[in-house]
Amino acid sequence: MLSKIETDHILSTLAHLAARWRGLSENSRVNPEIVSHYNKLLCFLIDTGWDDGLALEEELPDEFMPKEYLELSKEWS
Length: 77
Known about the structure:
This protein has helices at 4-23, 31-47, 67-76. By secondary structure, the chain is mostly helical. It has one domain (4-76). Helix 1 (4-23) packs antiparallel against helix 2. The longest helix has 20 residues, at 4-23.
């Protein structure tokens, strides 16, 4: 299990990546790299036992979110 500081750092990075993704045009070459990095970090966080939700502004559109997160979000509904 990660410490709160480690978890908070990852969550902050996810929020930064989501904001960066939204700030780029859809045709940007960087978008796939951001999505990949975002998904790897979020899956790592989930693999450590984290199961909280993200704020909407910290998420990417559903089609770019990892299936692991989408499955967790179904449990919260």
